[in-house]
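In the laboratory, one determines a bound structure by crystallizing the protein with its ligand and collecting diffraction data. In a computational setting the workflow is compressed into a single prediction: the sequence and the ligand go in, and a structural description comes out. We illustrate the idea with zinc ion.
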Amino acid sequence: MMRREDSRGFDASAWTVTTAAGALRAHGCRVTRPRVAVLQALLEHGAPIDATALTVLAQRYEPTIHEATVYRTVNVLAEVGITTHVHAGHGPSLVGLRGGSDVVAVCRDCGAIEAVPTAAVDDLADRVRRSTGYVIELGHFALEGVCPDCSRDEAPS
Ligand SMILES: [Zn+2]
Ligand SMILES: [Zn+2]
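The predicted complex, in structure-token form:
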């Protein structure tokens, strides 16, 4: 796996079809309609997403795209460092843009996925590093917990 551009994140909010195509070229990646469609879908969604939902979004840009093509496309984009994956609970791993919202929380009850402000978890990572020397990478696994809706359901009435 190529490790170019690892430290350089993407400003997802500034992306358009043209910048998506430019990013593909900058990463030495041929510009194809499925690749642009998958990138556009990731930009539109703005948070890590599973491949099935990503396919539905990508079909708005490329109506004939199949899930198998999305999988292959995501693998190519990951190899050149444009996308990354996040493990969320026991479900399928999620696809995200490298440098996007890096940390997500997943609800163990309903599976809802939400971006977590990185400042909050940076502080945790910093404390762990200072007390144990471990440099923990929080972005690879989603933080597991209970979402506001489900915790409301659990509250004693
Ligand atoms: Zn929930
Ligand atoms: Zn992994």
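Strands lie at 49-50, 83-86, 94-97, 104-107, 113-115, 143-145. Keep in mind that any predicted model is a hypothesis to be tested, not a measurement.
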